[in-house]
C-alpha cells in the first residue's frame, strides 16, 4: 500500500510538469495597431503557437509599457522574454542592428554568408539570442510629407522625423533630421512640429498619417530589417526541441516576410490615394543617389558604434554581393 501511494504521488508531481506549457512575454517597438506589429510580431506568435500545438504561447505588450528606445535593456535583464524591434531603436547600445539595413534582402544568402551568425554572436554578448531578422519588403523606405517635392535637393529646409538610420539621407537631401518615435509623428505633423517623416513602406494608413500629410515619396529606397531577440538565459532554459521550434519559425518568417509586405505596400498605396494622398517624385538627380545615401549613412552609423563587428559584417556582405 505504501509503495502504491508513493507511486501515485510521484505521478501526480511528474505528469503536470511534463505537460506544462511555456508562456513567454514579448515587447514590440511598434504600436499595437501598426502593420509591422500585426504582420510580423503577431504572425510570428501565431506561427509558434501553431507549430507547438499551443504548448508555447507568447503574450505581446506595446511601447506604451516601455518606450521603443528603452526596450533592449529590460529584455536583456529578463523583465520581458522576447523583443520585436528595429536596430535603430538601440543604437545607443550597439550599431550592429542598424547596420543590417545596408545589406541587400536575401535571407538565405545572409545566413550562408555568415552574417546571421555574426549578428547572433554579437547580441549574445548583450545577453540576447537572435531568433529572426525579418526583412520588411524587398525595398525599405519612403518619406511621408505634408507638401510635395519641388526641385532638388528634395527635402530642402524641411524638418523630417526619423531614427538614426535616416540621418545621412535626410541631410543629404537638404532636410533636418528630428529623432522621434513613430507614436509621436501624428501629433507632430498635425501641430507643424515636423514637415514629414521617414518611414518604411507599410503602416502609414494604420498610423493615420494620411490625415495630417498629403504625399508619399517615389522612388522608394534602401532596405530594412527588424529583429526578434530573446533573453539568452530564458532561451537556454528551454529544452532543445522548443529552442529549435523558435528558431525554425524565425527562419520561416524571414523567408516569407518580404513578399508578404511587398504586396501589402502596393495595396496600401492604392488605399492612400483613395484617401487623398498622392505620390510625389524626387528629381532624377536625387533619385539616382537615394540608395547610396542611405546605405552610406547606415554603414557609418554602425561603424561609429560597433566598429569591429560592423567592419566584419560589411566585409562579408561585400564578399557575397549583398552590399555596394
UniProtKB/TrEMBL annotation:
<keyword id="KW-0574">Periplasm</keyword>
<dbReference type="InterPro" id="IPR038404">
    <property type="entry name" value="TRAP_DctP_sf"/>
</dbReference>
<feature type="signal peptide">
    <location>
        <begin position="1"/>
        <end position="21"/>
    </location>
</feature>
<dbReference type="InterPro" id="IPR018389">
    <property type="entry name" value="DctP_fam"/>
</dbReference>
<keyword id="KW-0732">Signal</keyword>
<dbReference type="GO" id="GO:0055085">
    <property type="term" value="P:transmembrane transport"/>
</dbReference>
<protein>
    <submittedName>
        <fullName>TRAP-type mannitol/chloroaromatic compound transport system, substrate-binding protein</fullName>
    </submittedName>
</protein>
<dbReference type="Pfam" id="PF03480">
    <property type="entry name" value="DctP"/>
</dbReference>
<dbReference type="GO" id="GO:0042597">
    <property type="term" value="C:periplasmic space"/>
</dbReference>
Amino acid at each position: 500500500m505504501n509503495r502504491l501511494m508513493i507511486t501515485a504521488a510521484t505521478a501526480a508531481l511528474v505528469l503536470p510538469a511534463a505537460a506544462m506549457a511555456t508562456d513567454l512575454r514579448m515587447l514590440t517597438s511598434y504600436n499595437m495597431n501598426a502593420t509591422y506589429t500585426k504582420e510580423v510580431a503577431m504572425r510570428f506568435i501565431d506561427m509558434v503557437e501553431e507549430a507547438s500545438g499551443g504548448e508555447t504561447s507568447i503574450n505581446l505588450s506595446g511601447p506604451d509599457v516601455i518606450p521603443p528606445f528603452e526596450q533592449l535593456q529590460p529584455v536583456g535583464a529578463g523583465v520581458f522574454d522576447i523583443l520585436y524591434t528595429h536596430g535603430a531603436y538601440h543604437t545607443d547600445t550597439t550599431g550592429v542592428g542598424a547596420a543590417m539595413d545596408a545589406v541587400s534582402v536575401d535571407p538565405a544568402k545572409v545566413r550562408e554568408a555568415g552574417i546571421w551568425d555574426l549578428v547572433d554572436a554579437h547580441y549574445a554578448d548583450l545577453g540576447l539570442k537572435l531568433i529572426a531578422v525579418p526583412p520588411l519588403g524587398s525595398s525599405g523606405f519612403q518619406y511621408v510629407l505634408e507638401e510635395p517635392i519641388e526641385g532638388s535637393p528634395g527635402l530642402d529646409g524641411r524638418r523630417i522625423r526619423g531614427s538614426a538610420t535616416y540621418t545621412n539621407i535626410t541631410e543629404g537631401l537638404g532636410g533636418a533630421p528630428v529623432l522621434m518615435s513613430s507614436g509621436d509623428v501624428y501629433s507632430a505633423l498635425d501641430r507643424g512640429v515636423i514637415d514629414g517623416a521617414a518611414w518604411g513602406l507599410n503602416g502609414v494608413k494604420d498610423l493615420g498619417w494620411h490625415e495630417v500629410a498629403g504625399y508619399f515619396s517615389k522612388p522608394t529606397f534602401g532596405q530594412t530589417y527588424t529583429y526578434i531577440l530573446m533573453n539568452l538565459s530564458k532561451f537556454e532554459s528551454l529544452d532543445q526541441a522548443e529552442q529549435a521550434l523558435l528558431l525554425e519559425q524565425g527562419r520561416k518568417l524571414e523567408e516569407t516576410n518580404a513578399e508578404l509586405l511587398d504586396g501589402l505596400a502596393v495595396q496600401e498605396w492604392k488605399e492612400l490615394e483613395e484617401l487623398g494622398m498622392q505620390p510625389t517624385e524626387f528629381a532624377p538627380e536625387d533619385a539616382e543617389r537615394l540608395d547610396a545615401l542611405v546605405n552610406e549613412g547606415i554603414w557609418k552609423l554602425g561603424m561609429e558604434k560597433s566598429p569591429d563587428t560592423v567592419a566584419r559584417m560589411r566585409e562579408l556582405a561585400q564578399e557575397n554581393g549583398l552590399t555596394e
